[in-house]
Amino acid sequence: MNSAVKNLNFRTVFDAAADAMLLTENTGHIVLANPTAQQLLGYSADEMKGLAIEMLIAPRYRKQYRYYQRLFLNRPVKRSMSVGNELIALNRDGKEILLDISLSPIKTGQQLFILILFTIANRRLDTEDALRSSEERLRLAKQAAGLGIFDYDFKRNIIYWDRQMRKLWGKHSEKTVSYEEFVAAIHPEDREARQAAIDKAMDPNSNGEFKAQYRIINPINGVERWISARGRVYFEAGYPHRLIGVTRDVTEQRNIQKKLQVHRNETENILKQQVAARTASAIAHELNQPLAAISAYSEVVLHALQNDSFSADNLKRALEGCVAQAQRVGRSLHELLAFLQKGELMTERSNLTDVIHGALSIVYNDGYGRFHPILHLQQNLPAVQCNRTQIQKVLVNLFRNAIEAMRNIDFPILTITTTVQTVNDEDVAVVIVQDNGPGFDQVVAKRIFEPFFTTKPSGIGMGLSISRALIEDNGGQLWVDSDAKTGAKFHFTLPFGP
Ligand code: ADP
């Protein structure tokens, strides 16, 4: 080695270094400070000697420094600047300087020294700028969202709050307020629930999240506002020490929600009334015919009794009629209720011809006798899948409507033609019921499926709307051919069975 190099001692190199350097003992006291360090920190060499490094650190970071110092002494290895070692130092005038530092342990004999090398961090300006602009962004966002910010210090029992919070709480002067003052503005009815939300968030086993909605009463004008608050509790050594959060005035939303709720309730009530009215009408529709028949049978019997003209046979027939009608009412009501309750629909493979014959005989028995039924049934028609009673009910309704319409015009021959056929390429049977009555115009045609639409003096207007619902429940469709020139022509479809 070159002898000149050999003669270079540590002190010469230390003082000549362009970077700031401090040599400290393991206690953290400065042994040496090179001229660059003295200049950077504003101290003379003598002033720095013996000074505790801690004194050169901004007070709020001292605790952190002690922690890192302990870590370093436990494992004294070189830490370079590039690994993010930075520190906010104080110069002699008390100005804060952000420094990048590196640490190197130097062991001589039993003694451990630490060489600290530091430079002013370039990031400083950027950081400050970023901080300023992010603060500005936060302020603007806060303003736009109408947010207030609060910071509740549990230990000191005070709340720091911003201008927006003070405005909501109706206080203008102080930047902090005692917790009691803060709570005083909260509506008494909402205090308990709010406190419970805070207690929950303060539980160290929780995630610290705080969420509450409560009313506050402005002490100046007595105006009540709804506040939505959200925040988080921060814990220190397992104890809650701060709750930081935001509040928002949600009075308008609450009002809109309330109006919507009132509106929803009203609509629901109307709907319930309508359902009740329809149910009652549907029941009346089922009862109407059999009751009329029972009444007619009874009158016949009474008349016969009064005139002493009854035969046991006639009496028996009339009473059997009454019994049959009464049983029919029972069955109808049972089915109707099942239908209204939307229980599971029981369907079976059914022969449409049988169903149509069954419906026709019901109509005959109801005393609608005077009409001429014509049937056109496609040969070898497969069975359909349906609830037979329901489809029979639909057919009875269509036949009855047809007869009532035809009776009105006193037509000499009342004919109802029922046609059953398949639709090409579709797996459905179509049933067409056509009468030779007056039919109806386009205006009526548009409304006949509406509940309560009737043109009959004693009609209820539920027959067709129930029929349509029944057919749809059975997987088909019911419609009317409004172009019919000769009477009304109803169509419905049913799916073929498997
Ligand atoms: P309602 O029989 O109680 O009036 P419906 O729903 O069964 O109830 O029928 C509604 C209306 O449709 C009847 O009032 C009538 O004006 C009309 N209508 C139904 N079927 C026929 C038909 N075959 N011919 C003429 N009008 C009909």
The top-level CATH class of the largest domain is Alpha Beta
- Major β-sheet, in short? 6 strands, antiparallel
Q: Decide which structural class fits the backbone.
A: alpha+beta
Q: What is the number of domains?
A: 4
Q: What gyration radius follows from the Cα positions, in whole Å?
A: 48 Å
Using the 3D structure, state the CATH architecture of the largest domain: 2-Layer Sandwich
Low-confidence stretches: none
CATH superfamily of the largest domain: Histidine kinase-like ATPase, C-terminal domain
Tally of helical runs? 15
Strand content: 15-25%
**Overall strand count:** 18
* Strands in their spatial order, largest beta sheet: 8-7-6-11-10-9
Q: How much is the average pLDDT?
A: 85
Measured distance between first and last alpha carbons:
105 Å
Tell me the overall shape: elongated
Bound small-molecule species: adenosine-5'-diphosphate
**CATH fold node name of the largest domain:** Heat Shock Protein 90
Helix content: 40-55%
Domain PAS: 6-80, 134-205
Protein name: histidine kinase
GO molecular function, one term: phosphorelay sensor kinase activity
Keywords: Kinase, Phosphoprotein, Transferase
Output the keywords.
45% helix; Beta-Lactamase; Sig_transdc_His_kin-like_C; 498 residues; binds adenosine-5'-diphosphate; alpha+beta; 5-stranded antiparallel β-sheet; Helix Hairpins
Describe the structure.
With 498 residues, this protein is α+β, with helices and mostly antiparallel strands. It has four domains: 3-125, PAS domain (Beta-Lactamase); 146-249, Beta-Lactamase (2-Layer Sandwich), CATH 3.30.450.20; 254-340, Orthogonal Bundle (Helix Hairpins), CATH 1.10.287; 348-495, Heat Shock Protein 90. It contains 15 helices and 18 strands. The protein has helices at 3-7, 10-16, 35-41, 45-48, 62-74, 123-145, 163-168, 179-184, 188-202, 251-306, 312-340, 352-368, 388-408, 442-447, 463-473; strands at 20-25, 30-33, 86-90, 96-108, 111-120, 147-153, 158-161, 176-178, 209-217, 224-236, 239-249, 348-350, 372-377, 384-386, 415-422, 428-435, 478-480, 489-495. The protein has a six-stranded antiparallel beta sheet, with helices on both faces. A hairpin with a 4-residue loop joins strand 1 (20-25) and strand 2 (30-33). It is elongated and about 150 Å long. The relative contact order is 0.05. The model has no long low-confidence stretch (mean pLDDT 85). Adenosine-5'-diphosphate binds next to helix 13 and helix 15.
